[in-house]
Amino acid sequence: MQTSADRQGRYEYPAHWEADVVLRDGGTARIRPITVDDADRLVSFYEQVSDESKYYRFFAPYPRLSAKDVHRFTHHDFVDRVGLAATVGGEFIATVRYDRIGADGAPASAPADEAEVAFLVQDAHQGRGVASALLEHIAAVARERGIRRFAAEVLPANTKMIKVFTDAGYTQKRSFEDGVVRLEFDLEPTDRSLAVQRAREQRAEARSVRRLLAPGSVAVVGVGRAPGGVGRGILGNIRDAGYGGRLHAVNKAFPEDLGELDGVPAYRSVRDIPGPVDLAVVAVPAPYVPAVVAECGEQGVQGLVVVSAGYAESGPEGRERQRALVQHARTYGMRIIGPNAFGVINTAPDVRLNASLAPEMPRPGRIGIFAQSGAIGIALLSRLHRRGGGVTGVTGVSTFVSAGNRADVSGNDVLQYWYDDPETDVVLMYLESIGNPRKFARLARRTAAAKPLVVVQGTGTAPQGHAVRATHLPHETVSALLRQAGVIRVDTITELVDAGLLLARQPLPAGPRVAILGNSESLGVLTYDRCVAEGLRPARPLDLTTAATAEDFHRALGRALADDTNDAVVVTAIPAIGEGSPGDTELAEALRSAAAAVPGKPVLVVHVELGGLAQALSAAASTAPAAAGKERADARGSAQPLPTAAVAPPEGTHLIPAYPAAERAVRALAEAVRYGQWRQDATDPGKVPEYEDIDEKGAARLIGELLARGKGFTIPEAETCELLGKYGIHVRRTVPAPTADAAAEAARALGYPVALKATAPHLRHRADLGGVRLDLADEEQLRRAYTELTELFGKPEELRPVVQGMAPRGVDTVVRAVIDPAAGAVLSFGLAGPPSQLLGDMAHRLVPVTDREAASLVRSIRTAPLLFGWRGSTPVDTRALEELLLRVSRLVDDHPEVVAVTLEPVVVAPHGASVLGATVRLAPPPVRDDLGPRTMPAY
Asked: What pLDDT, in 10s, does the model give residues 854-874?
């Protein structure tokens, strides 16, 4: 009998098991299979493990590994015996292995589906979550190799390892015998194990970003000796912002006797810095970056901000340089923002870090900003500054990240950080590309349930420096899916700031009812019209006339806010000329005091040529109350007396955002209304119904038989109808009609009236071209129609005519489902013909779809009124349509081999829905990395 070691040469090294992971403390490690070349690493690793940990592993004193042990632990067949190692800097910090066993506990091969598993973690790395990450990966490997259950024997005193197993979320059995705890657990992922995995992912990735944004010490590498230059500029920005940690300047060209530069300690190398360095800002030319990375890694630096250019944005050679940079940094457990990054900012008073090219530190606030482009990041900071009367109060910035090529740290990582960051209330993101849409949608949905997330999304063409997954979905579809996840999707950075200011300053509206009041009738009417266009429900504008005083505004706003029929108020104001006309400050105070007296509803101001009103409305010095005359630090760190106009309002009040145009204010309000509605709906997302007539196992058998014939093909019509029928989706039968006699015979079998259709690709579903003849009541009409079709379009073999029984009259719709490699399974719905084909009027939802989502999907298209009795027509059976959508969703969710489904047309009648045409495409299912173990993006 061959042993596993004898069979090792039969199996190729499984490179796809290699992965980089973020650990509990925010550091990183690489997980890879153990091979015969790892003997020395294994011995070195074991020598650094304490005697206690060795005892827990082998249940006896085991001071060193024998040559036989080393051979056994490094020779695997990658099927029945597998070993994985977690490495940092190329050296082992932990190992895990499994051995397949039979029912008697002896070594076995397939079809045995159980394996014993054992871990060993270096003491210096215990508590970092290494064992939990290794368990996820060894379980995924075992499932791939047909193993369904793990068994582990653990000493009762080894509580840390017992906790690793019990906290994993798998279905478990525990027993105690002969002084040993035996744990058995199934490897099939459960809802709990997936929830545990994602919670660990969030904590780890959030901490990895926190280490970059709140470092205790910073080194700027590449600081020029002469004034000017990127490195010298960043060093000055960090120093001038009042950074509270230790700051170091590094340049290998510094004279040996240079002790400091601009008051900052100076060194020739990161290695020369006494004490730990948490963050290194790298500003050297790209060819010198590898040496800097090595220095930082050896010094124990936790993360890098690489502002150096010359990477993937410069072409293929730069792309390879970028790949090497990421791999090099990860070997040392470091994360990277960049390369080609603009930098990071953290305004927290105990941090005050401006490690960026921005010359001034924004004032503290509650808005987190992420931008892949430095230029866009500066534009966002600048617009917030101008719109907030200085970036003050709740409209200031908490943290700012400009990730450049985002080779490592991406928007997903920063979202993980902001999700539970107590200093951030609103998130603004400018995304030129989305590297992992499926994960971003998942994280966005969770974040949006806690705080607003406003996104400007690129048009679909990724910048050259960005690695993105291929997607077949149009840009509009991706945008719709983001909205479904609670993302507030806007088109420009102006709209991004407009929405951000409102969401940061005001409560969410409870509904779409809007009161409008002001001193300009025409501006009020314009605001009313924009509200109607945005789908809001405005009341008739209240004109206070141009003679209105500040007190008039105060009383009118108070009444509007107290009115239960209003959910929000828009105040319009134009300059008034006259002795009693209010000044900017007076009017601002009147509006603010009225809003404070009746809190809970948002107030917006549309102002025209009132230069001081916006500043007066947003005047505040911090996010907390401050007394008049209190001092604050300005952007350069010096103490400045707090201006009287900048005193914060009483605690609990909201600052009122002002907009220079009605359409901008109303657009921001409409987005807030939609987001508020999404938040309400998210509390009860609905459920995925169970249908008793679904034959899931029968469908799986049929799919398996069909895929045995080939990979990636559209299945024949008969099998399509059979497969859909197993999910309660019945397609009206069609009968081929190669001759007029065959057509007549088919019609007699089906029963009149019938339809005659040409199914050639250029005529299919094209009633407008005359390729479909409906309501043929008898054989005479049928034969006449057959003759007309052949005379118009050619021979029957070219037309491929079929006969089908007539469905009840109704509205023609189309239902589609597709599995996209980047976004996942997507269900789409629209009206058949020009609305969907010409106007693109389709709505989309991620699968699986709940009953509430199906109802929303039907109502989301612009032409939905045609389904609900538009202009006196008879409403159709939307409940039957929703059930059909839910059944299609179940089909593609249960069977990922079903990669595309099209039902067209689906005629929705006053009673019931009829599927008249269907196609199904099968293929091996795409890899679902979101269900596998935690990994960082591969590079």
From this structure: 999 999 999 999 999 998 889
